[in-house]
Protein backbone atom coordinates (compact mmCIF):
# COMPACT_ATOMS: atom_id res chain seq x y z
CA UNK A 1 0.00 0.00 0.00
CA UNK A 2 1.33 3.39 -0.86
CA UNK A 3 0.80 6.33 1.40
CA UNK A 4 -0.62 8.43 -1.42
CA UNK A 5 -4.31 7.94 -1.05
CA UNK A 6 -6.32 8.57 -4.18
CA UNK A 7 -8.29 11.74 -3.67
CA UNK A 8 -11.94 12.00 -4.58
CA UNK A 9 -11.04 14.35 -7.43
CA UNK A 10 -8.42 11.93 -8.79
CA UNK A 11 -10.80 8.99 -8.51
CA UNK A 12 -13.49 10.84 -10.43
CA UNK A 13 -10.90 11.92 -12.99
CA UNK A 14 -9.74 8.34 -13.56
CA UNK A 15 -13.28 7.02 -13.68
CA UNK A 16 -14.46 9.63 -16.15
CA UNK A 17 -11.40 9.16 -18.35
CA UNK A 18 -11.84 5.39 -18.26
CA UNK A 19 -15.53 5.37 -19.04
CA UNK A 20 -15.16 8.14 -21.61
CA UNK A 21 -12.24 6.36 -23.24
CA UNK A 22 -14.21 3.13 -23.36
CA UNK A 23 -17.15 4.86 -25.04
CA UNK A 24 -14.92 6.70 -27.50
CA UNK A 25 -13.15 3.45 -28.34
CA UNK A 26 -16.48 1.70 -28.85
CA UNK A 27 -17.43 4.43 -31.29
CA UNK A 28 -14.12 4.65 -33.12
CA UNK A 29 -13.11 0.98 -33.25
CA UNK A 30 -15.69 -0.04 -35.90
CA UNK A 31 -14.79 2.98 -38.02
CA UNK A 32 -11.05 2.35 -37.86
CA UNK A 33 -11.47 -1.36 -38.60
CA UNK A 34 -13.73 -0.35 -41.50
CA UNK A 35 -11.04 1.98 -42.85
CA UNK A 36 -8.15 -0.48 -42.59
CA UNK A 37 -10.15 -3.36 -44.11
CA UNK A 38 -8.26 -3.37 -47.45
CA UNK A 39 -5.03 -4.10 -45.58
CA UNK A 40 -6.51 -7.10 -43.79
CA UNK A 41 -8.72 -8.54 -46.54
CA UNK A 42 -7.73 -11.95 -47.88
CA UNK A 43 -7.15 -11.95 -51.61
CA UNK A 44 -8.14 -15.06 -53.53
CA UNK A 45 -7.11 -15.90 -57.05
CA UNK A 46 -3.97 -17.38 -58.49
CA UNK A 47 -5.71 -19.46 -61.14
CA UNK A 48 -3.82 -20.12 -64.33
CA UNK A 49 -4.84 -17.98 -67.28
CA UNK A 50 -4.53 -19.47 -70.73
CA UNK A 51 -2.77 -17.29 -73.32
CA UNK A 52 -2.71 -17.62 -77.09
CA UNK A 53 1.06 -18.15 -77.15
CA UNK A 54 1.91 -21.66 -78.42
CA UNK A 55 4.36 -23.25 -75.99
CA UNK A 56 6.46 -24.86 -78.72
CA UNK A 57 7.06 -21.44 -80.30
CA UNK A 58 8.73 -20.13 -77.15
CA UNK A 59 12.49 -20.04 -77.59
CA UNK A 60 15.35 -18.95 -75.40
CA UNK A 61 14.63 -15.40 -76.52
CA UNK A 62 12.04 -13.76 -74.15
CA UNK A 63 8.76 -12.88 -75.87
CA UNK A 64 6.02 -10.69 -74.54
CA UNK A 65 2.88 -12.70 -73.79
CA UNK A 66 -0.38 -10.93 -72.98
CA UNK A 67 -2.93 -12.57 -70.75
CA UNK A 68 -6.42 -11.37 -69.93
CA UNK A 69 -8.34 -12.14 -66.78
CA UNK A 70 -11.37 -10.96 -64.87
CA UNK A 71 -10.33 -8.59 -62.10
CA UNK A 72 -12.61 -7.83 -59.17
CA UNK A 73 -11.76 -4.42 -57.77
CA UNK A 74 -14.13 -4.11 -54.80
CA UNK A 75 -17.50 -3.45 -56.52
CA UNK A 76 -15.97 -3.07 -60.00
CA UNK A 77 -15.40 -6.15 -62.13
CA UNK A 78 -13.49 -5.76 -65.38
CA UNK A 79 -11.31 -7.53 -67.89
CA UNK A 80 -7.68 -6.63 -67.40
CA UNK A 81 -4.81 -7.46 -69.73
CA UNK A 82 -1.34 -7.87 -68.25
CA UNK A 83 1.77 -9.21 -69.88
CA UNK A 84 4.77 -11.37 -69.03
CA UNK A 85 8.13 -12.00 -70.62
CA UNK A 86 8.26 -15.72 -71.38
CA UNK A 87 11.26 -17.74 -72.46
CA UNK A 88 12.52 -21.30 -72.34
CA UNK A 89 15.42 -22.42 -70.21
CA UNK A 90 16.11 -25.95 -71.39
CA UNK A 91 12.80 -27.74 -70.92
CA UNK A 92 11.24 -25.39 -68.44
CA UNK A 93 9.23 -22.31 -69.23
CA UNK A 94 10.02 -19.12 -67.38
CA UNK A 95 7.75 -16.08 -67.14
CA UNK A 96 8.93 -12.78 -65.66
CA UNK A 97 6.84 -9.80 -64.65
CA UNK A 98 7.51 -6.70 -66.75
CA UNK A 99 7.04 -4.40 -63.75
CA UNK A 100 10.29 -2.65 -62.89
CA UNK A 101 11.30 -3.05 -59.24
CA UNK A 102 12.50 0.54 -59.11
CA UNK A 103 9.28 2.52 -59.44
CA UNK A 104 6.91 0.25 -61.33
CA UNK A 105 7.42 1.22 -64.99
CA UNK A 106 7.30 -1.49 -67.66
CA UNK A 107 10.53 -3.11 -68.81
CA UNK A 108 11.30 -4.36 -72.34
CA UNK A 109 13.58 -7.11 -73.48
CA UNK A 110 16.50 -5.56 -75.37
CA UNK A 111 14.91 -2.15 -74.92
CA UNK A 112 18.37 -0.62 -74.93
CA UNK A 113 20.00 -1.32 -78.35
CA UNK A 114 23.41 -1.36 -76.71
CA UNK A 115 22.39 -4.11 -74.25
CA UNK A 116 20.55 -6.64 -76.44
CA UNK A 117 20.64 -9.38 -73.80
CA UNK A 118 19.08 -7.48 -70.93
CA UNK A 119 15.71 -6.14 -69.85
CA UNK A 120 15.64 -2.37 -69.96
CA UNK A 121 13.39 0.10 -68.18
CA UNK A 122 12.96 3.34 -70.15
CA UNK A 123 12.06 5.48 -67.12
CA UNK A 124 15.39 5.56 -65.30
CA UNK A 125 17.52 3.18 -67.36
CA UNK A 126 17.17 0.26 -64.95
CA UNK A 127 18.52 -2.99 -66.37
CA UNK A 128 18.07 -6.68 -65.57
CA UNK A 129 19.75 -9.86 -66.72
CA UNK A 130 17.69 -12.42 -68.61
CA UNK A 131 16.85 -14.27 -65.37
CA UNK A 132 15.53 -11.05 -63.89
CA UNK A 133 18.57 -10.21 -61.76
CA UNK A 134 18.92 -6.45 -61.46
CA UNK A 135 22.21 -5.13 -62.84
CA UNK A 136 24.22 -3.50 -60.03
CA UNK A 137 24.66 0.23 -60.47
CA UNK A 138 21.24 0.70 -62.09
CA UNK A 139 18.27 2.01 -60.05
CA UNK A 140 16.32 -1.23 -59.31
CA UNK A 141 16.93 -2.70 -55.86
CA UNK A 142 15.71 -6.23 -56.57
CA UNK A 143 15.12 -8.80 -59.32
CA UNK A 144 12.02 -8.89 -61.51
CA UNK A 145 9.09 -10.86 -60.07
CA UNK A 146 8.28 -14.21 -61.54
CA UNK A 147 4.98 -15.78 -62.66
CA UNK A 148 3.94 -19.35 -62.17
CA UNK A 149 3.80 -20.71 -65.71
CA UNK A 150 2.80 -24.02 -67.28
CA UNK A 151 1.89 -25.57 -70.58
CA UNK A 152 -1.79 -26.36 -71.09
CA UNK A 153 -2.82 -28.18 -74.31
CA UNK A 154 0.19 -26.78 -76.11
CA UNK A 155 -0.36 -23.21 -74.98
CA UNK A 156 1.34 -21.12 -72.32
CA UNK A 157 -0.72 -20.51 -69.15
CA UNK A 158 0.27 -17.84 -66.62
CA UNK A 159 -0.44 -18.23 -62.90
CA UNK A 160 0.18 -16.37 -59.68
CA UNK A 161 2.97 -13.86 -59.26
CA UNK A 162 5.77 -14.71 -56.83
CA UNK A 163 9.23 -13.57 -55.85
CA UNK A 164 12.02 -14.39 -58.29
CA UNK A 165 13.37 -17.89 -57.58
CA UNK A 166 16.02 -17.90 -60.32
CA UNK A 167 18.57 -15.55 -58.78
CA UNK B 1 4.69 11.25 -19.85
CA UNK B 2 1.59 13.03 -21.09
CA UNK B 3 1.90 15.54 -18.28
CA UNK B 4 5.48 16.31 -19.27
CA UNK B 5 4.47 16.73 -22.90
CA UNK B 6 1.64 19.04 -21.85
CA UNK B 7 3.97 21.07 -19.62
CA UNK B 8 6.50 21.38 -22.44
CA UNK B 9 3.86 22.81 -24.80
CA UNK B 10 2.23 24.91 -22.07
CA UNK B 11 5.55 26.46 -21.08
CA UNK B 12 5.99 27.72 -24.61
CA UNK B 13 2.44 28.51 -25.73
CA UNK B 14 0.57 29.12 -22.46
CA UNK B 15 -2.36 26.99 -23.58
CA UNK B 16 -3.93 26.49 -20.15
CA UNK B 17 -6.00 29.71 -20.23
CA UNK B 18 -7.34 28.75 -23.67
CA UNK B 19 -8.81 25.41 -22.70
CA UNK B 20 -9.80 26.73 -19.27
CA UNK B 21 -11.90 29.31 -21.07
CA UNK B 22 -13.50 26.56 -23.11
CA UNK B 23 -13.90 23.88 -20.45
CA UNK B 24 -14.45 25.76 -17.22
CA UNK B 25 -17.92 27.18 -17.08
CA UNK B 26 -20.70 27.33 -14.61
CA UNK B 27 -23.39 24.66 -14.73
CA UNK B 28 -26.25 26.11 -12.69
CA UNK B 29 -28.10 23.82 -10.34
CA UNK B 30 -31.36 24.01 -12.27
CA UNK B 31 -29.76 22.49 -15.40
CA UNK B 32 -27.83 19.77 -13.57
CA UNK B 33 -29.63 16.39 -13.66
CA UNK B 34 -27.67 15.37 -10.54
CA UNK B 35 -29.68 17.95 -8.58
CA UNK B 36 -33.05 17.73 -10.28
CA UNK B 37 -33.53 14.69 -12.47
CA UNK B 38 -36.03 16.58 -14.63
CA UNK B 39 -33.13 18.76 -15.73
CA UNK B 40 -32.21 16.01 -18.23
CA UNK B 41 -34.22 18.03 -20.75
CA UNK B 42 -31.24 20.40 -20.80
CA UNK B 43 -29.13 17.57 -22.29
CA UNK B 44 -30.82 17.50 -25.68
CA UNK B 45 -28.64 20.23 -27.16
CA UNK B 46 -25.47 18.45 -26.11
CA UNK B 47 -26.87 15.14 -27.37
CA UNK B 48 -27.63 16.75 -30.72
CA UNK B 49 -24.02 17.88 -30.92
CA UNK B 50 -22.74 14.46 -29.84
CA UNK B 51 -24.72 12.71 -32.57
CA UNK B 52 -23.62 15.35 -35.07
CA UNK B 53 -20.01 14.47 -34.26
CA UNK B 54 -20.80 10.78 -34.83
CA UNK B 55 -22.45 11.71 -38.14
CA UNK B 56 -19.39 13.65 -39.28
CA UNK B 57 -17.00 10.86 -38.27
CA UNK B 58 -19.01 7.99 -39.74
CA UNK B 59 -19.67 10.04 -42.87
CA UNK B 60 -15.95 10.69 -43.34
CA UNK B 61 -15.28 6.96 -43.13
CA UNK B 62 -18.14 6.08 -45.48
CA UNK B 63 -16.68 8.28 -48.23
CA UNK B 64 -13.63 5.97 -48.26
CA UNK B 65 -15.78 3.49 -50.18
CA UNK B 66 -18.73 5.43 -51.56
CA UNK B 67 -18.80 6.79 -55.11
CA UNK B 68 -21.37 9.39 -56.20
CA UNK B 69 -21.94 7.91 -59.63
CA UNK B 70 -25.16 6.36 -60.92
CA UNK B 71 -23.38 3.24 -62.21
CA UNK B 72 -21.48 2.54 -59.03
CA UNK B 73 -23.22 4.27 -56.11
CA UNK B 74 -25.52 1.40 -55.19
CA UNK B 75 -22.77 -1.17 -55.84
CA UNK B 76 -20.34 0.68 -53.61
CA UNK B 77 -22.90 0.99 -50.82
CA UNK B 78 -23.70 -2.72 -51.13
CA UNK B 79 -19.99 -3.50 -51.05
CA UNK B 80 -19.17 -1.34 -48.04
CA UNK B 81 -22.15 -2.68 -46.12
CA UNK B 82 -21.70 -6.37 -46.87
CA UNK B 83 -18.06 -6.97 -47.78
CA UNK B 84 -16.13 -4.53 -45.60
CA UNK B 85 -15.53 -5.35 -41.94
CA UNK B 86 -17.92 -3.41 -39.67
CA UNK B 87 -19.53 -1.89 -42.77
CA UNK B 88 -22.97 -2.64 -41.40
CA UNK B 89 -22.07 -0.91 -38.13
CA UNK B 90 -20.55 2.20 -39.70
CA UNK B 91 -23.34 2.63 -42.21
CA UNK B 92 -25.83 1.83 -39.45
CA UNK B 93 -24.39 4.58 -37.28
CA UNK B 94 -24.84 7.08 -40.10
CA UNK B 95 -28.29 5.78 -41.02
CA UNK B 96 -29.81 5.69 -37.53
CA UNK B 97 -27.88 8.73 -36.35
CA UNK B 98 -29.42 10.74 -39.20
CA UNK B 99 -32.90 10.12 -37.83
CA UNK B 100 -31.83 10.51 -34.22
CA UNK B 101 -30.22 13.89 -34.80
CA UNK B 102 -33.53 15.22 -36.13
CA UNK B 103 -35.35 13.82 -33.09
CA UNK B 104 -32.80 15.35 -30.72
CA UNK B 105 -32.82 18.74 -32.42
CA UNK B 106 -36.63 18.71 -32.17
CA UNK B 107 -36.58 17.87 -28.45
CA UNK B 108 -33.92 20.55 -27.92
CA UNK B 109 -36.15 23.08 -29.71
CA UNK B 110 -39.11 22.09 -27.53
CA UNK B 111 -37.01 22.53 -24.37
CA UNK B 112 -35.83 25.97 -25.46
CA UNK B 113 -39.40 26.93 -26.33
CA UNK B 114 -41.05 25.75 -23.14
CA UNK B 115 -38.36 27.19 -20.84
CA UNK B 116 -38.66 30.49 -22.71
CA UNK B 117 -34.92 30.46 -23.34
CA UNK B 118 -35.36 32.14 -26.72
CA UNK B 119 -36.43 35.44 -25.13
CA UNK B 120 -34.32 38.57 -24.95
CA UNK B 121 -31.28 38.61 -25.05
CA UNK B 122 -31.15 35.19 -26.76
CA UNK B 123 -33.26 35.87 -29.88
CA UNK B 124 -30.27 35.71 -32.21
CA UNK B 125 -29.33 32.29 -30.91
CA UNK B 126 -32.87 31.09 -31.62
CA UNK B 127 -32.51 32.35 -35.18
CA UNK B 128 -29.20 30.54 -35.61
CA UNK B 129 -30.83 27.44 -34.13
CA UNK B 130 -33.62 27.54 -36.67
CA UNK B 131 -31.00 27.88 -39.44
CA UNK B 132 -29.19 24.87 -37.97
CA UNK B 133 -32.45 22.92 -38.06
CA UNK B 134 -32.80 23.82 -41.74
CA UNK B 135 -29.23 22.70 -42.46
CA UNK B 136 -29.83 19.38 -40.70
CA UNK B 137 -33.00 18.83 -42.73
CA UNK B 138 -31.03 19.68 -45.87
CA UNK B 139 -28.41 17.12 -44.90
CA UNK B 140 -31.14 14.53 -44.31
CA UNK B 141 -32.73 15.25 -47.68
CA UNK B 142 -29.50 15.17 -49.71
CA UNK B 143 -28.13 12.15 -47.84
CA UNK B 144 -31.28 10.17 -48.54
CA UNK B 145 -30.54 10.06 -52.28
CA UNK B 146 -26.95 8.86 -52.03
CA UNK B 147 -27.53 5.07 -51.70
CA UNK B 148 -29.25 5.35 -55.11
CA UNK B 149 -31.86 2.68 -54.50
CA UNK B 150 -35.53 2.88 -55.47
CA UNK B 151 -36.58 4.44 -52.18
CA UNK B 152 -33.91 7.12 -52.53
CA UNK B 153 -34.84 7.87 -56.12
CA UNK B 154 -38.56 8.22 -55.58
CA UNK B 155 -38.23 10.11 -52.30
CA UNK B 156 -36.01 12.62 -54.06
CA UNK B 157 -38.44 12.88 -56.98
CA UNK B 158 -41.16 13.82 -54.53
CA UNK B 159 -38.86 16.21 -52.66
CA UNK B 160 -37.83 17.97 -55.84
CA UNK B 161 -41.46 18.25 -56.97
CA UNK B 162 -42.27 19.89 -53.63
CA UNK B 163 -39.43 22.36 -54.21
CA UNK B 164 -40.73 22.91 -57.76
CA UNK B 165 -44.14 23.93 -56.40
CA UNK B 166 -42.69 27.17 -55.01
CA UNK B 167 -44.38 30.07 -56.83
CA UNK B 168 -42.46 31.80 -59.65
CA UNK B 169 -38.96 30.43 -58.96
CA UNK B 170 -40.00 26.79 -58.37
CA UNK B 171 -38.86 25.66 -61.82
CA UNK B 172 -35.45 27.23 -61.33
CA UNK B 173 -35.01 25.62 -57.91
CA UNK B 174 -35.86 22.27 -59.46
CA UNK B 175 -33.19 22.60 -62.17
CA UNK B 176 -30.71 23.92 -59.64
CA UNK B 177 -31.26 20.89 -57.40
CA UNK B 178 -31.58 18.17 -60.04
CA UNK B 179 -29.09 19.60 -62.53
CA UNK B 180 -31.58 18.96 -65.35
CA UNK B 181 -35.11 20.08 -66.10
CA UNK B 182 -36.48 16.56 -66.66
CA UNK B 183 -33.95 13.93 -65.61
CA UNK B 184 -33.25 12.93 -62.03
CA UNK B 185 -29.96 11.22 -62.64
CA UNK B 186 -26.21 11.52 -62.88
CA UNK B 187 -26.05 15.26 -62.25
CA UNK B 188 -28.57 15.09 -59.43
CA UNK B 189 -26.48 12.50 -57.60
CA UNK B 190 -23.20 14.43 -57.89
CA UNK B 191 -24.91 17.66 -56.84
CA UNK B 192 -26.54 16.06 -53.84
CA UNK B 193 -23.25 14.48 -52.89
CA UNK B 194 -21.38 17.79 -53.09
CA UNK B 195 -24.10 19.54 -51.08
CA UNK B 196 -24.19 16.70 -48.56
CA UNK B 197 -20.46 16.43 -47.86
CA UNK B 198 -19.10 19.92 -48.54
CA UNK B 199 -21.58 22.77 -48.66
CA UNK B 200 -23.99 21.91 -45.86
CA UNK B 201 -21.35 20.59 -43.43
CA UNK B 202 -19.41 23.83 -43.90
CA UNK B 203 -22.56 25.83 -43.12
CA UNK B 204 -23.29 23.50 -40.21
CA UNK B 205 -19.86 24.02 -38.63
CA UNK B 206 -20.05 27.79 -39.02
CA UNK B 207 -23.52 27.99 -37.50
CA UNK B 208 -22.58 25.60 -34.69
CA UNK B 209 -19.62 27.82 -33.86
CA UNK B 210 -21.91 30.85 -33.70
CA UNK B 211 -24.45 28.88 -31.62
CA UNK B 212 -21.80 27.90 -29.04
CA UNK B 213 -20.09 31.28 -28.86
CA UNK B 214 -23.44 32.91 -28.18
CA UNK B 215 -24.44 30.48 -25.43
CA UNK B 216 -21.04 30.98 -23.79
CA UNK B 217 -21.38 34.77 -24.01
CA UNK B 218 -24.90 34.88 -22.64
CA UNK B 219 -24.76 31.96 -20.24
CA UNK B 220 -27.51 29.44 -19.65
CA UNK B 221 -30.91 30.98 -19.15
CA UNK B 222 -32.32 31.14 -15.63
CA UNK B 223 -34.74 28.68 -13.99
CA UNK B 224 -38.46 28.77 -14.67
Question: What key phrases describe this protein's structure?
Answer:
heterodimer; A: 167 residues; alpha+beta; Rieske Iron-sulfur Protein; three-stranded antiparallel sheet; 2 helices; 9 strands; 19% helix; 35% strand; B: mainly alpha; globular
What would you say this structure looks like, in words?
- The complex is a heterodimer of chains A (167) and B (224).
- With 167 residues, chain A is of the alpha+beta class.
- Chain A folds into two domains: 1-41; 49-162, Rieske [2Fe-2S] iron-sulphur domain (Rieske Iron-sulfur Protein).
- Chain A contains two helices and nine strands, in the order H-H-E-E-E-E-E-E-E-E-E.
- Chain B is globular.
- Helices cover 70% and strands 0% of the residues of chain B.
- Chain B has 224 residues and is mainly α.
- Chain A binds chain B through residues 27-28, 30-31, 33-35, 37, 40, 74-76, and chain B through 54, 57-58, 61, 64-65, 72, 75-76, 78-80, 83-87, 89-90, 93.
How would you briefly describe this protein structure?
The complex is a heterodimer of chains A (about 170) and B (about 220). Chain A has about 170 residues and is an alpha+beta fold. Helix content of chain A is about 20%, strand content about 35%.
Number of strands of chain B: 0
**What is the CATH level 1 assignment of the largest domain in chain A?**
Mainly Beta
- Cα separation of the termini of chain B: 47 Å
Sketch the topology of chain B as an H/E string, one letter per element. Answer: HHHHHHHHH
In whole angstroms, the N-to-C terminal distance of chain A is 64 Å
**Share in β-strands of chain A:** 35-45%
Mean pLDDT of chain A: 91
What is the count of DSSP helices of chain B, taking H or I runs of 4+ residues?
9
Estimate percent helicity of chain B. over 70%
Strand sequence of the main sheet of chain A, in spatial order? 1-9-8-4-3-2
User: What is the largest interface, and how many residues per chain?
Assistant: A-B, 12 and 20 residues
Cα Rg of chain A = 26 Å
Oligomer: heterodimer
Helix count from the secondary structure assignment of chain A: 2
β-strand percent of chain B reads under 5%
The main pleated sheet of chain A reads as: 6 strands, antiparallel
Amino acid sequence: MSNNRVSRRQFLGYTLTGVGGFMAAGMLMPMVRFAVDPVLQQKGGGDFVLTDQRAEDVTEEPVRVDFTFEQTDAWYVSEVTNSAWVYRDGDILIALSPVCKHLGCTVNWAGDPEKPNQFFCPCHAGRYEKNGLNVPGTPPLGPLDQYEVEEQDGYVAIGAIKLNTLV
Amino acid sequence: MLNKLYDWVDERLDITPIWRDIADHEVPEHVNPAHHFSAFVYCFGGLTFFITVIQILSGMFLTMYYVPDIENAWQSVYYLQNEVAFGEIVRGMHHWGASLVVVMIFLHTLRVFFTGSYKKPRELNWVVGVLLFGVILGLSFTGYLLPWDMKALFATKVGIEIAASVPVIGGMIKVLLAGDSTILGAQTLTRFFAIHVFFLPAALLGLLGAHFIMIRRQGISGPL
